[in-house]
Amino acid sequence: MLKSRLCIVLLLCVVFYACLAIEGRAEAARSDMYRNMLQAGKFYLAYSNQLSADDNNRELRLFQNERYSDYLAKKNLEKLVKGAPGRVIIAANGDDCYRETNYGHVSECQLERQGLHYVFSILTTPDQEKEFYGQVSDGKGGYVLQKNKVTGQPAGKSLSYKRYFLNNLMDCLLGPILPDDKKRKDVPGFRMVGEGLVEGDLYYEDYICRAGNHWDIMRYYFKHNDFVQIAEVKYDLMTDGSVRNYKKTIVNIEKFTGNPAEADFAVPAALEYKQKR
Q: Which DSSP category does 83 fall into?
């Protein structure tokens, strides 16, 4: 619905927005509701994105374990952990946070609860059975992947731990509405430059960031008040009018609420877990 007009709309925005003298951020009730959720640190977000397979495979840290790779090879399941990610879930309630990224039949999961960090994966077999693999201490200061077990590691000491407020992608895409104390320093500052009605009950908000000849344009889509999609384009606009380093990202938001469930922050019952302090 939105892809066909995305490039034309956003590229034309450059000419229009460059002439605007809008400073600061205009109030926009639709995004403010989600800003408040993020500020409170209590929310449930589910979305799907269109990262390339190459981008995605660099994220597959959990699947580099030799024992797990051998298991997949024997089962002829290597193809299940390749390709672009599907559904992503991020749930937060104060310092507790759960992140799940689905890669077809495999989900990579990280849970932060009460100061401990649990890393595990969920494999759905061709028979639709679920198998659980968790990072477990090897007793030598490292970790191995084992079936039906997981070790809670102190978050600051976990080798797999990298602190994001949301995750690497959404910290950037939601940067325009993240509260100042939640923003990453490497994410550029955006300003709101427009909002309005696309058609029917579909609304938009536009944000822009420019540094030299580099442009970063973000459009948020809302159906009524529901946040439904984020579209972003980045590129360098050269002096001769040509465009280089063009990159497009589209994220479809399935659910974004301020009411995560308590079950979102529990270690799966199938995993026997220990705590390492």
A: S
Reported as a single tens digit per residue, the pLDDT across 126-135 is 888 899 999 8
Judge contact between 230 and 219, C-beta under 8 A. Answer: yes
Handedness of CA 106, 90, 257, 22 (dihedral sign): negative
Q: Is the pTM of this model over 0.85?
A: no
Burial 133-151 (b: 16+ CB within 10 A, else e): bbbbbeeeeebbbbeebbb
Question: What number of residues does the chain have?
Answer: 277
pLDDT in tens, 83-127: 455 789 999 998 899 999 888 788 889 999 988 989 999 988 888
pLDDT tens-digit series, residues 118-127: 999 998 888 8
Backbone angles phi, psi at 21, to 5 degrees: -120, 50
Question: Residue 203: enclosing H or E segment and its boundaries?
Answer: strand 202-211
* Cβ proximity of 122 and 274 under 8 Å: no
* Phi/psi at 3 (5° precision): -65, -40
Nearest to 59 by CA among 168, 184, 192: 168
Strand, coil or helix: what is 50?
coil
- Maximal CA-CA distance, the chain: 62
